[in-house]
Amino acid sequence: MIFRREDLSSLNVGRLDLSENSEFLQLAAMRIPDQISFPAHTHLDRRPSFDSLRAQEAWVVISGIVQVDYYDGDDSFQQSFQLLPGDVSVTFYGGHGYSINKGEALVYEFKSGPYEGKELDKRVYGEK
Predict the structure, then answer these.
(1) Which residues contact 104 (CB under 8 A, 6 or more apart)?
(2) Long-range contacts for 86-89 (Cβ within 8 Å, ≥24 apart)?
(3) Nearest partner of 18 among 6, 5, 2, 29, judged by Cα
(4) Chain segment 20-44, per-residue pLDDT in tens
(5) Residue among 49, 62, 57 nearest 19 (CA)
(6) Which of 1, 35, 51, 82 sits in a 20 to 30 Å window from 95, CA-based?
């Protein structure tokens, strides 16, 4: 999924969930008015209610231009997008590749965890 900064410009005050509740990576956009605060809180430890876990990943572009290439579940190339500052790329299923082809980029990466090493986390296309 690609969410462009301008796609969210019409978001009224409030929260828009950008991922389904069933996804491992939860993502929402929030437009928060002045003088609003969120109570201090902690998230509870709990036992997972699922049998398998797939890492899902999001990149938020802070500065620069990033190209993302998406692949389907069969490793077939699907489509490329140019991400600009404020854009976010989310990979729920299939594969992805990122490249910075002009200048420097600053991104935030969010990924579901825990990370238990490359062997359990990913397969790089072309590696045996």
Answers:
(1) 63, 64
(2) 86/4, 86/5, 86/60, 86/61, 87/2, 87/3, 87/4, 87/5, 87/60, 87/61, 88/2, 88/3, 88/27, 88/58, 88/59, 88/60, 88/61, 89/1, 89/2, 89/58, 89/59
(3) 29
(4) 888 888 888 888 888 998 889 898 8
(5) 57
(6) 51
The answer to whether the bond into 114 is cis (omega within 30° of 0) is yes
Query: What proportion of the chain, given as a percentage, has pLDDT over 90?
Result: 35
- What is this structure's pTM? 0.80
Comparison of pLDDT for 117 and 4, the residue scoring more: 4
